[in-house]
Design a protein that fits this description.
The chain has 307 residues and is α+β, with helices and mostly antiparallel strands. The chain has helices spanning 29-98, 103-110, 121-128, 136-172, 297-300, and strands spanning 9-14, 23-28, 183-186, 189-192, 199-202, 205-208, 214-216, 221-229, 234-242, 245-255, 262-263, 268-272, 282-289, 292-294. It has two domains: 1-172, no CATH class; 183-300, Distorted Sandwich (Glucose Permease (Domain IIA)). The strands form three sheets. Strands 3, 6, 7, 8, 9, 10, 11, 12, 13 and 14 form a ten-stranded antiparallel β-sheet that branches. A two-stranded antiparallel sheet has the order 1-2. Strands 4-5 form a two-stranded antiparallel sheet. Helix 1 (29-98) runs parallel beside helix 4 and helix 3 packs across helix 4 (136-172).
C-alpha cells in the first residue's frame, strides 16, 4: 500500500505589539508561491502600464509642440513670401526709374518659369482653417515659390547692378569741370596764329594761371601719352576715357603720370607751364570725341555728380 504524499504547509505568525494573542495563518506552500508570482507579475504589469501612459502623454505634448512650431514656421514662410513680393515691386520700380526693359519678356522667351504666387495660397488656407496638421505639399509649394522668386530677383538685381555700373563708367568717361583754375585767354575755333600771323584753327582753349598751378584730369581714364611733343604742345598728356573721349593737356611745366596709368577724375596729372610754342604760362586743353576736336567750353561747367 502506497504512502500518501504529505502536503507542505507554511505557517505565518502575526505577533501584535501589545503582547496579546499571537495569530497564525497556515497556507499551502504551492499556493503561497503562486500568490507571490501573481503579485510580482501584477506589479510589473502595472509599472509597464504607467510607463506607457507617461510616454503617451509626453508624445502628445511633443506633438502639440511640433504642431505649434509648424504653424509658426508656416507664418514665417508667408511673411517671407510677402517680403519677396515687396522686393520684386522695388525691383520693378528701379527698372522704371532706370528705363530698363521689363524682365517679363526675357523670362517668357527663355523658358524660365516656376511656382506662382497662387501656389502659396494652399499654406495660407490651411493656416486660416486652423488645421492641426499642415500638409507637406503646402510647405513645399510655398518654399519653392519663395526660392524661385528669390532667384529671379537676384538675377534681375544683378542685371540692374551691371546696368548702373556701365552707366557710371560712361558718365565718368565724359570730361567735366575745369582742368585747372584760371581764365580763358584764347577760345576754340579760328584765330590768328601768334607765331606765324596766319589764320589757323585752335583745337582747344587756353586757360591762364600762375606757373605751377596743379592740373587735374577731367574724367576717369588711362594715360595714352605723357612726353614732350615737338609739334608745339611741349610737355603733353593725352588721356583716353573710353566711349570715344580723349582729353589733351599741353604746355605743362611737368607731368606726374606715365603711359598706361589709370587715372581718376580730379587726380593731379601735372602742373601748368610754358613749354612748347607758348607765349606765357597757360594750359592748352582739348576735348576729342571720336577723333574730332570739339569745343571744351561746353564741358567746363558740366559736373557729373558721382562719388
Amino acid at each position: 500500500m502506497q504512502k500518501r504524499r504529505s502536503t507542505k504547509n507554511l505557517t505565518i505568525l502575526f505577533v501584535p505589539d501589545d503582547n496579546t494573542s499571537v495569530f497564525s495563518l497556515k497556507i499551502n506552500a504551492l499556493l503561497f508561491i503562486f500568490l507571490c508570482v501573481l503579485w510580482l507579475g501584477a506589479t510589473v504589469f502595472a509599472g509597464f502600464i504607467i510607463y506607457k501612459d507617461i510616454n503617451y502623454r509626453t508624445t502628445l505634448q511633443y506633438n502639440k509642440y511640433l504642431t505649434q512650431k509648424h504653424k509658426e514656421f508656416a507664418k514665417e514662410i508667408l511673411e517671407l513670401r510677402e517680403t519677396v513680393k515687396r522686393t520684386a515691386e522695388v525691383e520693378n520700380q528701379l527698372r522704371d526709374l532706370l528705363k530698363l526693359k521689363s524682365k517679363n519678356a526675357i523670362i517668357k522667351y527663355t523658358g524660365f518659369g516656376g511656382p506662382s504666387y497662387i501656389d502659396t495660397k494652399l499654406l495660407e488656407k490651411e493656416l486660416e482653417n486652423n488645421n492641426e496638421i499642415i500638409s507637406r505639399k503646402a510647405f513645399e509649394a510655398a518654399v519653392k515659390y519663395i526660392d524661385s522668386q528669390a532667384q529671379t530677383n537676384e538675377k534681375s538685381f544683378q542685371e540692374i547692378i551691371k546696368y548702373i555700373t556701365d552707366q557710371r563708367a560712361k558718365l565718368t568717361a565724359v570730361p567735366s569741370g575745369w582742368p585747372v583754375k584760371g581764365w580763358i585767354t584764347c577760345g576754340f575755333g579760328s584765330r590768328i596764329d601768334p607765331f606765324t600771323g596766319a589764320l589757323s584753327f585752335h583745337q582747344g582753349v587756353d586757360i591762364a594761371n600762375d606757373l605751377g598751378a596743379p592740373v587735374k584730369a577731367t574724367a576717369d581714364g588711362v594715360v595714352q601719352y605723357a612726353d614732350f611733343e615737338r609739334g608745339g604742345y611741349g610737355n603733353l598728356i593725352a588721356i583716353n576715357h573710353g566711349n570715344g573721349y580723349i582729353t589733351r593737356y599741353g604746355h605743362l611745366q611737368k607731368f606726374v603720370v606715365s603711359p598706361g596709368q589709370h587715372i581718376k577724375k580730379n587726380q593731379i596729372i601735372g602742373f601748368l607751364g610754358n613749354s612748347g610754342k607758348s607765349t606765357s604760362p597757360h594750359l592748352h586743353y582739348e576735348v576729342i570725341l571720336n577723333g574730332v576736336a570739339i569745343n571744351p567750353v561746353k564741358y567746363l561747367n558740366k559736373e557729373v555728380a558721382l562719388k
